[in-house]
């Protein structure tokens, strides 16, 4: 199964995980280096996207795709 994890790689090549990661053993990985300009444009668009996506109408429209809460 594929799992995407965000990390930063410093100038010396050290990986700094941006979330907690646990490995059960050696893992094969693919690393995609993102263009910093793309990161900046994504950050700038985030507030507009949040305003569009985080509203009750949008939640209702996508509710059928959410797992049912366990009792």
Annotate the secondary structure layout.
Layout: E1 7-9, E2 15-17, H1 36-53, H2 56-62
Antiparallel strand pairs: 1-2
Tally of extended strands? 2
The helix count comes to: 2
How much is the average pLDDT?
A: 82
Strand content: 5-15%
Radius of gyration from CA coordinates: 17 Å
Q: Strand order of the main beta sheet, please?
A: 1-2
N-to-C series of helices and strands: EEHH
Uncertain segments are none
- Please summarize the sheet with the most strands: 2 strands, antiparallel
Percent range of helical residues: 25-40%
Secondary-structure-based class equals mainly alpha
Alpha-carbon distance between the termini?
Answer: 28 Å
Shape: flat
What would you say this structure looks like, in words?
The radius of gyration is 17 Å and the shape is flat. The chain has a two-stranded antiparallel sheet. The longest helix is centred in the middle third of the chain and has 18 residues, at 36-53. With 71 residues, the chain is mainly alpha-helical. It has helices spanning 36-53, 56-62; strands at residues 7-9, 15-17. It has two helices and two strands; from the N terminus they run E-E-H-H. The two termini are 28 Å apart. A hairpin with a 5-residue loop joins strand 1 and strand 2 (15-17). Helix content is 35%, strand content 8%.
